[in-house]
Each structure stands twice: as structure tokens, then as C-alpha cells.
Amino acid sequence: MKRKLEALHKTLFNDKPTDIYFSPGRINLIGEHTDYAGGHVMPIALSIGLYASVSKRSDKTIAFYSDDFSEEGIHSLDLDTIEPPTEKNYLAYVQGMVYKLKREKCTCDHGLNITILSDLPKASGLSSSAALLVLIGYIITDQFAIELSSAKLARFARFVENNYLNLRSGIMDPFVIVHGKKDHALFLNTQTMEYQYIPFKMKDHTLVMMNTNKPRSLIDSDYNSRVETVEQATRFFEDLRPIKSLCDLEIPDFNQLKARLNDNTAIQRIEHVLFENDRTIQAKDVLNDQDYEMFGDFMVQSHESLRYLYEVSCAELDYLVTENLKHGALGARMTGAGFGGTMIALYKNTDLPDSFDAIIDGYYKAFKKDVEIYTATASDGVKKL
Ligand code: GLA
Fold this sequence. Notes:
Layout: H1 2-13, E1 19-28, E2 40-41, E3 43-57, E4 61-66, E5 75-78, H2 90-104, E6 111-118, H3 128-143, H4 150-164, H5 172-179, E7 184-189, E8 195-199, E9 205-211, H6 223-238, H7 251-257, H8 264-288, H9 292-309, H10 315-326, E10 331-335, E11 342-348, H11 357-367, E12 372-375, E13 383-384
Parallel strand pairs: 4-6
Antiparallel strand pairs: 1-3, 1-13, 2-7, 3-6, 4-5, 7-8, 9-11, 9-12, 10-11
Helix pairs in contact: 2-3, 2-4, 3-4, 3-5, 4-5, 8-9
């Protein structure tokens, strides 16, 4: 990858890169749709992600190219006149992050050439957009020696997506992309922002990822409407109990008060959030004890809840979950926002099928799409290579 990147950088900018950076994708093991409700999440950073090569320019232009958007060629942003983005596209992610850093922190006295190559499938629910935001933020802070804590870098990335892309995502994705640790999952309380690393180096088990290849953009999905429901519910229960966020609401209190909401859909959604948060707290201990059978059960419960209560799954994800369970997985679930994207399945190595051809063929027959299969390993967060 490094050599390919250097060669491409030379072709594009006629320049030799001085630095190479890596920003990973992520999967969430459990704790889905809880991070905008003050709940817990347990993601890992992946070994696949975005790579960038960087060289200095004497003018004040940030020129960048991404192979994932090769048809757009090289984009240029002038550091002196940069404005917040107005469109909701790939350029907006880069422009938004550069603008945010420039406004808050940066005295940027020169420009940069940036080339980006990826081995992360796009729109696959593996968080390529947060990986891009963090990558750009990390490059800018490193190149201009800006002091910015890692927690703030994650918050800036969320700010850009929330404010310029109109996607009201939580903190999970940028946080784990910044703080990911090899062979560990990250257990994060999204209300207090306290976190701990849980060993996740499996000797006898394998975590398989299957990309549905059902592309979806969260910007056009029902994601924001789920966030809205959580916010409305928080306001409702705030008047009845001393809570700061929805996940502060105790389950018995919720059961006692829910009828007052008078909205079955909202009740279902809140039920998902509260029970998923509870499951995630339990799943942390179970993972610490390396009880993968129990962890698998939690994955299945999580998927059912996302499918029937939160209604963010889809036929493709449900198919892959069912088939993997039939093939002997200890647990399987959608990961990330849903509506498409990627499914994860946990297998005991002795139960791993020799091949997944039956699932691949069945999936193609049902959906006329290929499924891509990877193995997930927990890796470090964003870094300079
Ligand atoms: C997306 C968002 C995250 C989180 C997940 C669902 O990945 O970016 O903040 O809400 O969906 O758990």
C-alpha cells in the first residue's frame, strides 16, 4: 500500500511524500444506537481503513485526491479563504474538517498535497466517513503542530458531520477511530466519556464480517429520525425523573411510566435503547471473562432488538444473520447504523465452515448482489506510519 501510495502521489503532485498516515474503519461489537442516548458502546478499530500520503506546498492550498472518488480528480481548498461546506458530499467532509481546525486552532502558513487510498469498502457501514474526518484532522494537527487532545479530535469530527453534513451521528465512530487499540475492544460510556479497553484477541474464535453490498447513505436514511425520537423521549422523561440522558432512565421506571407516552412506536424504540445499553454493560464483563458463547447470545438479542424494536435492519442483513447462525455461528448481528452495511458473526474456530459458498450463492439468488467476506481484527486507531 505504501509503495502504491508513493507512486500515485508522485504522479498526481510530482512530489515525494514526507509522511504516511493511516485511519481505520470500525465495527461495533455491541451497543447499537445508544451513543446519542448517553449509553454504552463497544466498538473495535479495524486493520482496514484509509491511507494518506502528504507533502508540503509553498502556497496555502490544501490539494487532495482520493482513489475512492477518482472521477472527481484533485480538489483544492485555499486556506486563506476557506468557507464551511454547503454541499453534502465527500468534499464537504474534508472541507468541513479543515475549516473547523483552521477556525479553532490553526495558523497554517503553507499548503499540503494529500493522496488517499483505501482498502475499506465505501458505504458498507464500516465508518469510512468518520475515518476520513479523523484522518484529515490528524494530518492537519500533525503537520501544523496543533495541540489538540484526542478526545477533541473525535468531537471535532462529530461536529463536522452533525453541522455540515446534517447527520446527527453520535461520538462512537470518531472516538474509536482515534482511540482504537490493537487486540482490544473499547468500552465507552458516551455520557461521561469514560472508557476502558477490553482484551479482544481471540485464539479459538473468529469474527467474520459480511458486507451486504447494499449501499446506503446515512444522510438519506431514517437515522436522524431515530435520534429525534430519542431526544423527544428524553425531554418527556426528564419531567418525570432526574435524568440527563435517556440511558439514565432505569428500566423499572420506564416500565412503570411508558404507558403515559401513549405512542407504541416510541415505546418500542426506547425499549431497544435501554435494553441494548444494559446488554452492552453485561457484555463487557462477559467479554472480559472470554465467555464467547454468552457474548454470542447477546449479539443475537441485539440483532433481534434492532430488527423488531428499532427497525433499522433490512432483509439482506437478516438473511446473513440467519444463515450464519444456521452455519454454526455463536452469534451474529448487524453492526453500525443498519439499513444495509455490514453483518458480523462470531464463530468458534472448530465450527467455522470450510467455505461460505452456500451463503454467498444463496445471498446472490435472493438479492442479486455479491457478499464480501472479511475477518475482523482489533487494531490501533489513527496514526502516522
Ligand atoms: C452510526 C453513527 C454512530 C452510531 C451508530 C449506531 O455509525 O455514526 O454514531 O449511532 O450508527 O450505533
